[in-house]
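Table S2 (continued). Query chain:
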Amino acid sequence: MASLAHTDSARVSCSHNSRLEKELEELNDGWNPYNITSLGEDSDGVHLRAILRGPQDSVYFGGEFVVDITVTPDYPFKPPLLKFMTNILHPCIVPTISVAEHRRFTSSEGGGIDLLELKDRWSPSITLNDLLDRVLWLLRYPARATVRTGHGGCCQTASDLLGDAAANPPTSGLHPVPTRTVLPEQFRNAARSWVTAYALEGGAQKSEDSLD
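Corresponding output:
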């Protein structure tokens, strides 16, 4: 497996997609908040890796979450494929560990993300950094994320622990309001325990090993 490179030494590139090439040039010039690095290119597309750091005001703070990105030749007319490689307890992210009771949709691949911008709300104007911003929003607001996506059924365990916090978040009109929902203690404790087990130093590698 390719090792993670630091931003200042990583030179990501693309040989055939002018839009992606432009984005990668901007990353190489220094604006690379998610430490996107290259894993190579093949017939499926360009393979990248990003690091999401748990937001300071969230239950995921202190964790570093590896997300693999496959940018297909159809980009930006079709969204890239995103997959969490680090295990995380979140209602909109399929756990990477092979424990059936943690999955609502058993056909979903481990690490899959329930995000509207990866489906009906994709727009060619969305950049890789924009997309990762939206994934980070899921980590900041796990309860409201279930309302925004419409189901949040990627992880049954997380949805059950959130309970009414996910079912009845504060709203303004048709949309959840941008204020913090109080998360149940049982969810906070479980999410923090997963951060400790999988997303601290060495946690990313442990999660990847569970996919083998």
